[in-house]
Design a protein that fits this description.
422 residues, eight-stranded mixed β-sheet, four-stranded antiparallel β-sheet, alpha+beta
C-alpha cells in the first residue's frame, strides 16, 4: 500500500515523467513595460524543452541524422559569435519526422529547430517572464515534403454524370491494381502551398524553389501589399530550398505525355466507374423508399450514359495525338484545375485545352526529375535536398525577432549548408 501511495504522489506531482518539460526562468531584473533589452537565454539540443533528443531509426541512421543536425546547430551558433541575444529565450530541438517518398526513393526526414520565446515584462511584478509559445522560429528540414500540406491540383479525379446524385472518383480498392500515371503529377501550386502567398508572382516563386536559387515568403499576419507604419505588425515566413546546383526538382509534363497518360487514366476511371456504380446499385437493390428509387434511377442513367462519355474522351485525345504537330505536342501541359471540372461535360470540353502559362484556375503540370531524385543506396538519412525556414516578426515590441533575423541574413553560412548535399 505504501508503494502505491508513493507512486500516486509522484504521478500527481508530475515528477514521474519520461519527457518532463524543462522550465526556464528569465533573469529576474527590474523591467518597465518592455523586457526586450534583458539578457537572453540559449539552450542547445542537450537541454531541449521537452527532454532528451529521441531520433527513431537504425543505429547508422541515427548517427547520420545526428551528424547533420549538429552541423546545423554549430553553424547557427557560429552566426551569433558577435551577437548579443536579448529579449528572448532561444531553444534548440532535433526531430526525426516521417520518411519522405520521392517516387520509388525513400529518404529519412529529420529537422533542426530553434524556437524563440519572447520575454514580457510582468505588469505587477515588473520582472521578465517567458511566454509559453514561440512565434519566431528558425528551422532546417532535411529531405522535406515537397508540399507541407500534401495538396495536388492536376485536373483529374472525381466527376459527375448526373450532377449532385453520385460522385465518381478513383476507387481506393482499385488504386493498387491500376497504377495511375497522372497521380505522379505536381502543380506549381503544390510546391508553393504553405510557403508563398505572393499571388502576383506565382510562377516566379515556383522557379525559385524548383531551382533552389532564392527565397519565397508567406505572410502569416499583415500583407506584403499593405502600407506598414511603426505600430503595424508583420509575421512573415521565409523559405529557401537548398538543392543541387543546375538540376531542378521538377520537370514539365509535355502535352504529348499528358495526353498519353490520360488514355491510361481513362481505363482506370472506367474500371472505377463500373465498380462504384455496381456497388451502389447493389446497396440500393432492396431499398423501397422514394429516395432509393430515385437513386437507382440515377445510377442506371449514369450506367447508360458512361460508355458514350468514355468513348468520346478517348476519341478526342487520340485525334489530338494524331493530328497535332510535334512542336505543339512538346509544349508544357497547362490544364484547367480539377476543382472547376467536377461535371463530366466540363471535363470532356476541357480535354486538349492547354494554356501558355499557369494562371487562375489553371495548373502547369510537373513530374519528379529523375536526374535529381536518385536512389539513396541504403543511406536513407543522406540529404537529398533541404528546406531552410525563418519565421520572423516585425513590430516595435518584437525587436528580438528582427535582430535575430537580420543577424541570420548577415552571418548565417548558407554556403556551408549547400556543401552538405555533396
Amino acid at each position: 500500500m505504501k508503494q502505491k501511495i508513493v507512486l500516486l504522489l509522484l504521478l500527481l506531482s508530475g515528477t514521474f515523467s519520461f519527457a518532463q518539460k524543462k522550465l526556464l526562468t528569465a533573469p529576474q531584473v527590474p523591467c518597465n513595460g518592455s523586457a526586450d533589452d534583458v539578457a537572453g537565454i540559449y539552450t542547445d539540443h542537450n537541454n531541449g524543452k521537452y527532454g532528451p533528443v529521441s531520433l527513431k531509426g537504425t543505429a547508422a541512421e541515427k548517427a547520420a541524422m545526428m551528424k547533420n543536425l549538429i552541423a546545423i546547430e554549430k553553424l547557427e551558433e557560429a552566426s551569433r559569435k558577435d551577437f548579443k541575444l536579448t529579449g528572448c529565450a532561444a531553444r534548440v530541438s532535433f526531430a526525426k519526422h516521417d520518411n519522405s517518398s520521392y517516387g520509388k526513393n525513400v529518404y529519412a526526414r529529420h529537422g533542426y529547430q530553434l524556437s524563440v520565446y519572447q520575454y514580457v515584462c510582468h505588469v505587477k511584478e515588473h520582472v521578465p517572464k517567458i511566454v509559453d509559445e514561440y512565434r519566431t522560429v528558425f528551422r532546417v528540414d532535411f529531405n522535406p515534403y515537397l508540399s507541407p500540406v500534401g495538396i495536388k491540383t492536376v485536373g483529374t479525379g472525381e466527376f459527375y454524370l448526373k450532377y449532385g446524385n453520385q460522385v465518381y472518383d478513383i476507387s481506393d480498392e482499385l488504386k493498387s491494381k491500376y497504377p495511375n500515371p497522372t497521380a505522379q503529377y505536381f502543380s506549381e501550386e503544390y510546391l508553393l502551398t504553405g510557403r508563398s502567398d505572393d499571388y502576383k508572382n506565382k510562377h516566379t516563386d515556383f522557379l525559385k524553389l524548383n531551382n533552389g536559387n532564392d527565397y519565397v515568403e508567406r505572410w502569416q499576419s499583415g500583407s506584403r501589399y499593405d502600407k506598414h507604419g511603426p505600430d503595424s505588425y508583420q509575421w512573415i515566413d521565409r523559405h529557401y530550398f537548398i538543392t543541387k546546383p543546375g538540376v531542378p526538382l521538377l520537370i514539365p509534363v509535355s502535352r504529348k505525355q499528358y495526353l498519353e497518360d490520360m488514355l491510361v487514366y481513362f481505363e482506370i476511371e472506367k474500371a472505377s466507374f463500373e465498380y462504384i456504380n455496381a456497388k451502389q446499385s447493389k446497396e440500393m437493390a432492396t431499398q423501397t423508399a422514394d429516395w432509393a428509387t430515385k437513386k437507382r434511377a440515377a445510377l442506371e442513367s449514369d450506367k447508360q450514359a458512361y460508355p458514350k462519355f468514355y468513348e468520346s474522351k478517348k476519341a478526342k485525345v487520340k485525334d489530338l495525338l494524331a493530328k497535332q504537330k510535334p512542336e505543339w505536342l512538346q509544349k508544357p501541359a497547362v490544364v484547367d484545375n480539377n476543382s472547376m471540372l467536377k461535371d463530366a461535360n466540363k471535363s470532356l470540353d476541357a480535354l486538349g485545352r492547354f494554356y501558355d502559362e499557369e494562371g487562375e484556375y489553371k495548373s502547369a503540370l510537373y513530374v519528379l526529375n529523375p536526374a535529381y531524385f536518385t536512389d539513396n543506396k541504403g543511406q536513407s538519412a543522406k540529404p537529398l535536398f533541404m528546406e531552410v525556414q525563418f519565421r520572423y516578426e516585425l513590430n516595435k515590441d518584437k525587436g528580438y525577432s528582427a535582430r535575430l533575423f537580420n543577424n541570420f541574413l548577415k552571418n548565417f553560412d548558407m554556403e556551408a549548408v549547400k556543401k552538405m548535399l555533396q
